[in-house]
User: Fold this.
Amino acid sequence: MRRLLNISALVLIYFIFTAKSCDGDDQFRAAEEQAGVNSAKDSIAAVFTSDTLSNQALRAFEATARLKMFDFRDYLNLLSDTATSDVFHAKVAGMTGELFISREVRLDLTCSGAANGNDNLNKTLKKSGFKHIIISPGVVFDSVTVNSPLQKVSDSLYSGTLKFRLQCEDLNRRTGKLTPDVFRVIDIFVAKRENIFGTKSIKVWTILLGDVH
Amino acid sequence: MIDDAAMIYQVLGEKNPVGMELFNKQQFIDKLTVPSGSLRNIEILDSKFRDEKISVLRFRVNEKDK
Assistant:
């Protein structure tokens, strides 16, 4: 029995002296992880805060502008849904505002033969700060393409336009559920906007929508 | 799950992805919680963790159904 205890003690001592230090490994892994994260963040920040934008970056921003138009369309559908709460509507209206360069933009999304846009959707957007907005109910837009590519206006601003097809719910149902389509143009901008990451605030290039013509 | 100082960025393209938009934690959560068409087509490309929280996330939106 005593011999068995001695052997067990020796085995235990062997494991204690040969075991790797967990603390050391964990610290090394954490430092390595931190370095990888810092390096990735520095590279990302360099792309989004550069002094000028490459042609490739401008084409990418144009693609993002198209996606923002589809987000705008989806947000309008959510705001038109009377089954959802006012709190949710206010959240969506706030996010709609973030798509635009300012809430001073002129947004006329009306069609001939459609209602005048004096509904909850318009009221909610006006309440969130949009001043010049009129949107017909049941508005649909698609076929969004680049009308004029983004070009440099100043060191801190690039501008261009998108073209899109617009239809609204037809009040008279003369030609079907939707009014005949019309094409409209919307301004797009790339500007530097303040963005906060934890405690750090940096100005990053952001694509934003503007007036509808 | 997501670090407060996380940088989440959207890219375009497959072979040589180009940065399109940079989100902070709150902006990304808003994007995920408000249903929009683009949400259905988000594809996470890679991520980096720190203290078991997402610190860097790269994703793209596939333009299906547009």
Summary: Chain A has a mean pLDDT of 86.
